[in-house]
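Hi X.,

You mentioned you wanted examples for the new student's onboarding notes, showing what a folding record looks like when two proteins sit in one file. Here is a clean example. The first protein comes first, with its sequence line followed by its C-alpha cells.
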Amino acid sequence: MERCATGLDRVQPSGTPIAIPPLKRLAVCALHTAYPHYRVRFPTVRNAPAANSMQLAEMELLRWQEITSPNDHIVIQPPAGALDVRGAARLIDHNLGLTNKLEVSGINNQGMTTVYIVPAMGQTILKGFEIIGAADDAAYPGRRPSMVRIYGDASVPLAAVTPIAPLGNSQIQEFTVQNDTPYAYYTIVFHAPVGGDRLQVGELRLFGEAVVVPPTLTIRPSGLNVEVSWLHAAGFELIHKATLDDATCLPVTTPPVLINGTNTVTIAMTATTGFFRLRKP
C-alpha cells in the first residue's frame, strides 16, 4: 500500500503509524489457493474523531514477493562526467518522497547509468519488476529513462523495457520476466533520459522467489533400519531414487517424526541402494 502524498495522520488507516513522507507498507500472505476476487476491509482511521474522510493512494495485490529492500547492497556507476545527485540507495528505499529518487545529472552523449543490486536475502529468481516514477515526474517527464535493461548477475539479459510517458507523479509501471534461474545480483542499465541531461527514477522494485537451501541430511544405521534425519524446515519433503542416473525421484511415503527440532524417517534396511534428498513440492 502507498501512503497518500499529503502524509496526513488524520486520513491514515488504523494500525502502526507511518512516518512522513509517503512510504510503502508490505503485508505477506502465504496463500496457495486461487480466488476469483478479494475483499479488502478498512475498519477505521487512526484518529477517527478528527477525521472527515479516508484516503489511500494505491494498493497492489502481487503474486511474487519483493526481493529488493532498503537492506540490499547497491552500487551506481554513472556515465563519464555525470553526477549521482542523491545516492543510489534512494532507488530502493521504499520511500516515494520528493527527493527519494535516483537522480543523475550532467548526462552527455546518450550515456547510460548502471546500477548493481545485491539482494540481502541471497540468491533469488526474478519474476517481475516495477518502475515507479518520481514524485515530480509530471513536471519533468523528459527525465525518465529512454530504456531500462535488467541482467542476471553481470551479463545475462532478462528484460528490456521502454517506460511510457508519465500520466502523473509516482506512476507505477509493471513488467513480467520469464526466468527460472537464480542470481546473486542484478545489473540494471538506465539508458539516457528522453530529454535533457538529467535522469530520474522514483523507485525500482524487483519481485520473485528467494532460493531456499534445504537442510543437510544425516543417514545412519539403526539395527535393521536406516534413519534419515534433518533439522526441521517448513515446506520440504524427503524424496528418493534407486540410482544416481535415475531421472525420477519419488516421495518417501513414511512420514517423518519430529522430535526436538529434528525430523527422522525410519526406513527398513534392504540390499537395494537408495539416494535421498529434500525438495520443495
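Then the second protein repeats the pattern, sequence line and then C-alpha cells:
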Amino acid sequence: MAFQDLKSRLGNVKPGRAVELRTPIEAPSGPVTVARLAGGLADLVYFSRKGKKPGTQAEKTEWSTIQSKDVLPALRSHSAELTIAWLVFFGRHPEVKGRFKEQPQDRQRELQQEFDDIRARQVRPWLALRVAAGALGTRTLYLVDDPVFRKLPDPARDAVGTALNDVFAFAGQTRGQAPIRVIFLDPDRFPESYNFADAVVRVVDGKLTDHLDQAHQRQRDNAQHSIQALGIRVTFEPATPSQSVAERLGSSLVLKTVVPAGRTRLAIPIMVAAVDLSAVSSEFVSYYQDEARMIQGGRTLRPTDPGYWNPAQKLLDTATVQGAAKLKAAPNKPEAWDAGLQAQFGTALGRSLAHEARHLYFADADNHAATGLGASDVGDQVVADRPAYRQFSVDDRKNILAAIGKREKEQRGTTLVATFPAARRANGFPF
C-alpha cells in the first residue's frame, strides 16, 4: 500500500488537542538490536489492534506476521516512520480507513492530532535509537541512509531495499539458517561494533578508490583506539590487494580477522562496500539508448528473435524507446524520470549493492561465482535486468552460507572490537 501523509489528505483541517496515547510499548533509552527494534515496533502495531500483547500461539503468529510483512519491509523503505505510524493509527481506527473525508470536521481534527501524536511520541522515539550489534548468529545488512542515498526518488530507494531483501532472502529460507535482515540506517544510528556475519553497503557519488582507502583507514584507527581502551597492545596488518576488489560499478574491501592478545582473542570486523551512483546511472542510461537504437533499426542484431513480432514485444519495445527518450532528456537526474524508470534503476542499484555485499562474507574479497549475480561480469548484466543475474546461483548461495558459517565460527569465543566507537564518532563516518 502507498502511504500518504495524513495532513495532505485532510487539507486545511485545524489541529486538535493532544491525544492521550495509552500503551505499555515505550522505546528504551539505550541502543537496541535490529531484532529488538523490529520487535518493539511490531508490539506497537499489535497492541494498537488488540489492546494487549500476544499470548496464545495464534496471537504470536499474528504478531510474527506483522513483524515480517509490515515492520521489516518498512525498515528497508524510504518511509519507515510514516508507514508504521499509519499501521498503528489504523490499528486503533480501522473503521475510518479510506473514509477521512466522510468524517465531521471536529472528528477529522481529532484524528489528525492523534496521528501526529502517534508518529511523534510512539514511533519516532524507536526510530531515533542507535542500533547495537546483535548476538552471534544474527545477520544484518546495513545500507547507509545518508544524503547521497536520500536524494534518490522514493521509488528508487524502495526498489533498492526490495532488491537487497529479495537477493538475500534465500538465507532465511534455508533450513537451519538465520535470515539476513536488511535495514536502512542513518549514519548517526550505526552500531559501535559488528558481527563477522554483518555487512555494510553504501551508495557514493564517484571517487570509489578514495572512499575505500578513507573508510579502511578510519576503521583501522577506530579499532586500534578500541583495543587500547581495553588495555591491550596489539597490531594487525592492513588489508592486502587480495582483500579488496575494484569493479565497474562498485568496490569492496574486507578484513575480518581474529587477533590473539594474551588470553583474549580479538575479532576485528573491517569492511567497506560501495557502489558508484553515477556509474550505475550512466550504465542504465546507455543500456536504454542502445536498446532504443536496436529497436528503431529493426533489431538487426537479433533478426531471428521469434517473439519480436508479437504484440507484447511491440508494447515492450515502445516503452523502451519512450524510456530512452526520457532518460536522454535528463541523463543524470533520476528525480526527473517517471516512477517506472526510477524503480527499474533502483532495482539495478540494489542488485549492484548485493553483489558488493557478497564480497564481505568471504575471506578473499576478490572472490566471484561462475554464474549469477556473484559473477565478475555482473555490471551491465544487472543494468539490463538479465534473468540469470537477478539472483545468486544455487551453488553460490551454498558457498555464501558456508562462508558466513565459517565467519561465525571464527568469531565465537572472541571479544568483538568496536570499529565505530562512541568516542570516535566526531572523527567521521567510517563506512
